[in-house]
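Data availability excerpt. The first of two example chains:
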Amino acid sequence: MKKTYHLCLSAGDEVMFRDLEDYHRGFNCFACALYKTDSTGLVESFMSTHTHQLVQARCPGELMYTFRQSYTMYFNHKYHRKGHLGEKHHFTTEISGYHHTIAAASYTLRNALHHGVAPIPYAYPHCSANAIFSKEMGKMHGEPLLPKSSYYKHIGRRSEYPDSYKMTESGVFTRESVLDIPQIEALYGTPRAFNFYMSRKTSEEWEAEQQKDANNSASINLEIIEKGVGVHGTAQMLAFESGKSDYRKISDIELCTELDTLASTRFGRHSVYELSLKEKNEIAEYLYRTRHLSESQIRRCLILPKGK
C-alpha cells in the first residue's frame, strides 16, 4: 500500500544543478524513477543545492535511490566528476492527514520563496506551482512538444517512461503529464484557496490546524521540511518569506554557468571540477573582491572546501 512521504535530498557543500539542462534532467530522472518504482508524484521543487518531493510510494527509499543514481550518472559524466552526488542519506518524513499533507505540499511549493530566490512561488520555474489550477489562473501558455523519437536525447536511450509523459522542446517532461495534479487540486479545493496557501505567512496557527488531524504526528513546519539542508536558518527563511531579499542578485545557476564556461574557455577544462585548488582560489578571490558575492555562494559554486 502506498503512503505519502516528503523526501529531501541535499547536495551538501556542492551545487546539484549547475545549469538549465541540469534542472531539466533532474526532473526527467525523477519522472522516470516514479514510473520505474510505481510511485505517484504530487508536488516538487528543485533548488540548486537540494530537492523536495511529495510523493506516494510503497518504498520511498527505492524511489530516491533510482532518482539519484540516474541523475548522478548524468552529472558525473557531464562535469567529469566522480563519486556520490548529495549527502549520504536523504531525509524521509511520512505525511498523514489532510492538514499535514496540505502543509507539506505548501512548504514544498514555497521553497524558492523561503530561500530568497523568488518573491512568490509562481516566479520560480523549477517547481510545480504553475502546473496547479493553471487554466483557472490564466497560465495556459504551453511550450510546443517534442516527438517521442527525440526524448532519448534528454533522458538517455535506456530510460523507461509511460506513453502519457509529454516532453517540451526544452527537453523536460511537463509536470502536468508526470504529477497527479488533479489530486493536488482536490486537496486545495479551489484556485483561491491554493493562492491563499501560496501567500500565507508561516505561523503557529498553521501548525495548530494540523492538530485537527488527530493522528499524533508532529506538525509540519520549516524545520522539518528543511531538515538536513543547512543552506539558511529558520530566521533567515522567515525573513525571505517577508520579502527581505534582493532578487536581482546573481543566482547559483547563473554563477555556475559562468564558472563552467570560464573553466572551459580560459583553463581548457570541462568544468570547475577539473580546476586545481590554486585556480579555484584565484577565481574565488576575484569574485569576492570585484563582484561582492557571498563567500558561501562562491564556495559551493566552485566546490571549494571550507578553510581552503
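And the second chain:
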Amino acid sequence: MKKILTLFLILTFGINAFAATAKTSKSVSSKSKANTSSKVKAATSKHSFESSIKAKLFKEIERGNGTKITIKDAVRMALKDSYQVYTATKMKEIYEEMVTQMTSGYYPNLSFDAGYNRAFLRTHALNSQTDKMVEATIANNTYTAELNANWVLWTGGKIKNSKEFAKLQSESADYQLKNTKTFVAKQVTQYCYAIIYASALVHVQETYLEIAKQHLTETKARYKQGLSSNLDVLTQQVRVDNIVPQVLQAKKNVDLSTLYLRQILNKDPEFPIYLTWTENDLTVPNVKDIQHLYNVAYEQRPELIVSKLAVQIADTNLKISKAGNYPTLAAYGNYGYYGYTKEGLPDKDHYYWGANAGLKLSLPIFEGFSTSSQIKQKEKYYEDAQASYENLKKTVRIQVKAAWLNLEEAKKRIESTKGVVEQAQENLNSKMLRYRNGLISQLELNDAISDLNDSNLLYVQAVYDAHVALSDLNYAVGLETKDYE
C-alpha cells in the first residue's frame, strides 16, 4: 500500500511539473513570437514611412509632351551622342592609324620618278687639252624614268621603338576614351539627380506654401471671430508672400537642370525629353570597404592607367633618341630609262637603260650636341612622367576616400533626418490642433511649420548629396560603362 501511494505521488507531481514547464515554454515562445512580430511590424512601418516620404517629396513634376527617359537611358544616350565621347573616339582612331604609319618603317620604299629637261643654255666644261670652255653635251632634251627602291635594314632600334611608341599611344588613347566615358557618365548622373533634387524642392516649397496658406485662411477666420488680431493676419500674409518666390525659383531650377542634361546629351535646348525615376533610383546601395575600393581604383581607373602608360611612352621616346647615336644601314637600288636628244624624241641610238644597287652605311659623328641634348630632354620627360604617376596614385586615393566619406556621411544624414521628418510632421499636427483650440500662439505654430519645412529640406538634401557622392565614388574607382552601351 505504501509503495502504491509513493508511485501515485511521483506521477502526480511529475505531470504537474511537465504541465508547468510546457506552459512556461509556450509563454516564452508566445513572447518571442510577439517580439519578432513587433520588430517586423516596426521595420515594415519604418520602410512604409520612408517610402511614403520618397513618394511625396520625390514624385515627378508633370511636364509637357515629350519622351520620358530613365537615368540609365540618359547615360546611354550621352555615351553614344556626347561631343566629348565623339572627340575622344576620333583621337583613338588617329592613334590607331599611327601604329600603321610607324610599322611602315619595316618595309622597303618604292618610288617611280619621271622627268623631262630642256636646256636653253647647255652646260660647259673645261677642255684639258685646249684649256678652253666647251659644251659638255650637245643635248637639248633629257628624258628620264626611274624605279627606285630603298630599304632601311638597321637603325639602332629606332624603327622598333617608334612602332612601340605608337602602340602605347594607341593604348593610352583607348583608356582616355574610357576615362571620358566614365566622366560623362558621372556628369549625366549628377545632372539627373540635380533634376530630381530640384523637383523635390518644388514639392517641399509647395507643401510649405500650402500649409502657410491654410494657416492664413484660418487666421483670417479667427480674426473675424475676434480670436486673432489684424497683426496676426498681416504677419501670416507676409510669410505666404515670402514663400512664393522660393517655389518659382525651385521650378526654374528644374528647367535649368533639364537644359544642362540636354546639353551634355548633345540635344537641342527644346528637344522634348524629360527625366523619369523610381524609388529604386533614390535608394543608396551599400559599398565595399575603403581598402577594396583603393584596389579597384588601382586596377581599373582609366586616368591612372593612362598615367602609367605615359611613363612607358616617355621611356620609349628616350630609346628613340638614344638610337640617334647608332649608325643606319640601308639597301638601295634603281632601274631607269635615260634619253638625250638635240631635238625631238630619242630613238634607239639616243637612249639607254641603267640599273644599280648597293648598301649605304651612315654613321653620325658630330651633330653639334643635338642628339645628346635630345636624350637629356627625354630623360627629364621620363622622370616627370614617373613623378606624375606616383602623385596621381595619391590623388586617386584622396578622391576615393573623400567620395567614400561624403557618401557615408550623407547616408547617416538620411537615416537621422527620416526620423526628424516624422517627428516634425507629428509635432505640426499636434500644434495645429492646439492652435485651433487656442492653447498656443501663432508664433509657436509657425515655428512648427518651419521645422517641418526645414526637416524636409534636410532630408532631400541628404538624399541628393548621397547620390552625388556615389557618382563621385564610381568615377574615382573607374566605373565600367559597358552595361550602359
